[in-house]
Amino acid sequence: MHWACLFLPQLALDAALRRRADPTVPLVLLEGPSQRRMLHAVDPAARALGLRPGMSLAAAQALGGRFDAEPYDPRTHERERSLVAAWAYAYSSQVSLELPHAVVLEVARSLRLFGPWPRLEARLREDLRALGYRHRIVAAPNPHAARVLANVHDGLAVDMHALPNALGQLPVERAGFPPDVAEAFGRAGLRHLRQVRAMPRDSIARRFPPHVLRHLDLLHGAAAPPLTLYRPPDRFEVRVEFEHEVESTPRLLFPLRRLTADLAAFLLSRDGGVQRFVLRLEHERHAPTDVRIGLLEAERRAEILFDIARGRIEQAQVPAPVRAFSVIAEDLPPFVPPGADLFDERPQGAMSWPHLHGRLCARLGEDAVRGLGWRAEHRPERVVVHEPVRSPPPVTSHPRPGWLLRHAIPWRDRDVRILAGPERIEAGWWDGHDVRRDYYLVETREGQRAWVFCEAGGAPPGRGDAVMLHGWFA
Fold first, then answer.
1. How far is CA 288 from the centre of its chain?
2. Domains of the chain by range and CATH?
3. Secondary structure class of 212 (helix, strand, coil)
4. Per-residue pLDDT tens for 272-304?
5. ∠ at Cα 390 (384, 391), nearest 5°?
């Protein structure tokens, strides 16, 4: 067992259902010219109304049931399949889109990391259900066999010894042959693949094109050219187009949650994160509205990406109803998980510093959230500056108060205990605002800690009158 096939039978329909906040309303996909629209695919709720693929739209409407309809776009199928491949890349470095309607991945090495096949299969199914894709999963010694077995099986896993029997039971029309070849086998009385396999090879070669024998050999493990392997791109972009214009922000939250989940799955496949991305809102008669999101550190957790994006989009000024919605990410640095202590004493719901910064910026705006920075200056009243937040504030080696007064005021308390000092600060002679001070950390009778100073060489606190209060410690 080396290859797993993820067969995706209703990918375009799943893509439409993933965009809908209420999946209980029956949905059909339409194809064909406007004069004769046909049902290309129907979801289970629509099938319960009696709708079937291939039925005309007029006939479906004549049944009287209420259902929604969307046009079928073949490009959607490939976009969604690429997204599934990007997610599957987190489980295997050998992923291919070469076989139709499926994603295949080599899992022999993955079993060493994720455990035996039943455990890995359960993880794959759990993730695919969370992403909203219906699927069938089959494992076999080669990708071509896994693909055709997925036509009729789900959950099957065969090794090299069991493969011939499993393939022999396949109906000819489900074995991956072109329709005309399968029909010719049927007219000859060959109903199962084992009957075709039992025919002399020269007889098959005379009556059928060369690709028939080649297909048989591939299914049974003959040497084959390697599949074209998928590589995740360096840019993420997913777009959702709405059937009707969206005029309220709450209606954007469901597609936003789905798109950020897709972004998180893409980032997981790359073992990377995102630091900057764009929410692009498209309008009918206006230029697109770009909501730009920047994070302090690379992130890839879906719930955090959604939480921050939701705050930004709720504060965005949108000039017109939204016709389409995209998430675009190009800054994809490596992801470094935050370190954690074995005995972490923080409350369970405590936020990390980057997450808190992102939420504050989303609610208040980036200009309203400023950090405290330190400039190369010895005078305390000139050290602290306000600047954009980049990381948690650094910690100095000298004791500095959390509350620095704007202007120093006289200190009258003589009953204090000196905890540290004096620390002499002498600077500013070059700009006419020179200072010469001796700073002390003192504690009052009530246990408060203050930062006070006197002129250089003056009497320390408790002994002299010329003492000034410059700040308080928490």
1. 23
2. 3-25+67-219 (3.30.70.270), 236-331 (3.30.1490.100), 403-472 (no CATH)
3. helix
4. 888 889 999 999 888 999 988 888 778 888 888
5. 85
